[in-house]
UniProtKB/TrEMBL annotation, chain A:
It holds the Pfam family BPD_transp_1. The keyword Iron-sulfur does not apply. Its main location: membrane. This is Carbohydrate ABC transporter permease. It is a multi-pass membrane protein. The keyword Flavoprotein does not apply. It comes from Fictibacillus fluitans.
From TrEMBL, chain B:
Belongs to the binding-protein-dependent transport system permease family. It comes from Fictibacillus fluitans. This is Sugar ABC transporter permease. It is a multi-pass membrane protein. It comes from the Bacteria. The chain crosses the membrane at residues 29-52, 94-115, 127-146, 175-194, 228-254, 274-301. PROSITE patterns: ABC_TM1. Keywords: Cell membrane, Membrane, Transmembrane, Transmembrane helix, Transport. Residues 89-301 form the ABC transmembrane type-1 domain.
Length: 273, 315
């Protein structure tokens, strides 16, 4: 009895936090299922009638285009980062050479970097390369700015792989590339998963490069498209909420099915095992 | 972050055999270069060269097309007497302070709740993390609606306390407060995860020993948990400072830096100067100041870390 009473404050705090973090999502989803009249009559209550009308109108307005662009850019960029970062991490973590530490620190320092310091030159560069206002303009900066955290995660992991495995492969006549492909890469899967999740979520949500490098609606990624929707939906709030729900859905679904992995992935290099 | 730079120990493969050292070292050089080349090329093209370029542009008056006019340090001199620049710097400082003194403590409380002995906490913890998952643009748009003077739920709540129809985003002070609240909402879950991992790592024996000595939960927290969390608090603060210097998305979406520059940040101001007013030279100067501040913070942190380690302190 005594113990149960002691726990009451804990439950209260837990519930307050639950409402604080969870209510906006409930509001978003509930509003997206309301008709416009219902929203104006009762903006705060849960939806009473259920309609998918808003989702339909959002697709008619071209949300699917943004979806495709976002998927293309994030998937290509993430896989490129995984490969490039894994390649770079191999000598940085397992070979001795003069500039090792300098190169490593140069990459890691990128984590501290404000993107704004590169914005104008990257904008000019995309024009020079003829990529401005295409989704391909995003690939370069997306890959480059994902490298620091990825290299950080992968080098940490690679250091833990015992050197004896490498020695054995060497005796079998493997060169460094062979060792990398056959010995290191297969053992790297957990770290690569972290890199994949971390970068995918960040790139899926990335805003500022898209804002600067894309101008036509048909080339926009989701975050930029949503921002663009804001004006058109100023009178259709349930519609806007449907768009927000759809845009958040992929990540929420992934999260629900593999919560542990996503949390660990997002904490990225900040949490050591 | 300080844990991050702790170091790459280069694993030393057994001493190289001494046969034909010249050819061997050339081979090694080529191998290393090939492994590093893709990363270095992309990194130079999109990170290192642009920073250098930004510094260069900052000495020019330039509208983004054609050739600029070299003006030396004039852009930086203008910055010093630009009120909006100082407002931005102040607002960035507010973001930093909120991150350190509100977000991090709230993150710690959330982490403690995750480990509290109550039912249903697993489900709760899943939801606690939600805000950190969705895009800042979606977060911003959602909260703009919730802060709406007429239909917003926030006004419904504050009306209980006698405030009616607050126009949150139309006045500097309330706008700043509102955006900071949203930042706390969005990023506290991140610190929650960091703290949870750190708390789980504290050896159980310490608590058992304290229990035998008859320590209360309160004492245990202040004598065991908090001191052992110091490294996490320090590294979280570093992440918060650096992250706050970069803040942009949420302000751009919710207020656009307005009303009347009231919520302007270095990031939003730089963006406006560059891509709305096409003062590319001036914008580059702001961007370089941002870069410079981030570097100063990093260097100070590294130096502190170095001296602390030299002294052999644990924290």
């Amino acid at each position: 009895m005594n113990v149960a009473i002691k726990k009451v404050p804990l439950y209260v705090i837990a519930l307050i936090l639950l409402v604080f973090t969870g209510y906006p999502f409930l509001y978003m989803i509930s509003t997206s299922l309301k008709s416009r009249t219902e929203f104006f009559e009762k903006p705060y209550s849960l939806f009473s009638s259920f309609t998918l009308e808003n989702f339909k109108s959002v697709f008619e307005m071209g949300l699917s285009r943004y979806f495709i662009n976002s998927i293309l850019v994030s998937v290509i960029a993430v896989f490129a980062v995984m490969l490039i970062a894994a390649l770079a991490s191999y000598p940085l973590s397992r070979m001795k050479f003069k500039l090792n530490r300098v190169v490593f620190l140069l990459f890691i320092a990128g984590m501290m970097l404000p993107i704004h310091a590169t914005l104008i030159p990257v904008f000019k560069l995309s024009q020079t390369m003829g990529l401005y206002d295409t989704i391909w303009a995003l690939l370069g900066p997306y890959i480059a700015f994902s490298l620091p955290i990825s290299i950080f995660i992968l080098t940490q992991f690679m250091q833990e792989i015992p050197a004896s495995l490498e020695e054995a492969a060497k005796i079998d006549g493997c060169n460094h590339f062979g060792i990398f492909w056959r010995v290191i890469l297969p053992m790297l899967t957990p770290a690569l998963m972290t890199v994949l999740i971390y970068n995918f979520i960040h790139l899926w949500n990335e805003f500022i490069f898209a804002l600067v490098l894309i101008s036509s609606p048909e080339n926009m990624t989701l975050p930029l498209g949503l921002q663009d929707f804001k004006g058109e939906f100023s009178v259709n709030i349930p519609g806007l909420m449907a768009a927000l729900t759809l845009a958040s859905l992929p990540i929420l679904v992934v999260y629900i099915f593999s919560q542990e992995k996503v949390v660990k992935g997002l904490a990225g290099g900040a949490v050591k095992e | 972050m300080e844990t991050q730079l702790k170091g790459v120990r280069t694993a030393t493969p057994a001493a190289q055999t001494k046969t034909r050292p010249k050819k061997k070292s050339l081979n090694k050089f080529i191998t290393i270069s090939l492994f590093l080349a893709p990363a270095i090329i992309v990194y130079i093209l999109y990170v290192l060269y642009p920073i250098f370029s930004t510094l260069l542009y900052s000495f020019y008056k330039w509208d983004g097309v054609g050739a600029g006019e070299f003006v030396g340090l004039q852009n930086y001199i203008n910055l010093l007497s630009d009120n909006v620049f100082w407002t931005s710097l102040t607002n960035n400082t507010w973001v930093i302070l909120t991150s350190i003194f509100v977000q991090i403590p709230l993150g710690l409380i959330m982490a403690l709740m995750l480990l509290a002995p109550i039912r249903g906490i697993r489900l709760f913890s899943g939801i606690y993390f939600f805000p950190f998952l969705i895009s800042t643009v979606a977060v911003g748009l959602l909260w703009v609606l919730m802060l709406d003077p007429l239909n917003g739920i926030i006004n419904q709540i504050v009306s209980v306390f006698g405030f009616e129809n607050v126009e949150w985003l139309s006045q500097s002070r309330t706008a700043m407060f509102a955006v900071l609240l949203v930042i706390v909402w969005q990023f506290s879950p991140f610190y929650m995860i960091l703290f949870k991992a750190a708390i789980v790592g504290i050896p159980e024996e310490l608590y058992e020993a304290a229990e035998i000595d008859g320590a209360s939960a309160f004492t245990k927290f202040f004598r065991i948990t908090l001191p052992l969390l110091m490294p996490t608090i320090v590294s979280s603060s570093i992440l918060a400072i650096v992250g706050s210097l970069k803040a942009f998305d949420i302000f751009y979406v919710m207020t656009g830096g307005g009303p009347n520059h009231g919520t302007e940040l270095l990031g939003t101001y730089m963006f406006k100067q560059a891509f709305v007013n096409f003062n590319m030279g001036y914008a580059s100067a702001i961007a370089f100041v941002m870069f410079f501040l981030a570097m100063i913070v990093t260097i100070i942190i590294q130096a502190l870390d170095y001296y602390r380690k030299k002294k052999g302190a644990y924290v």
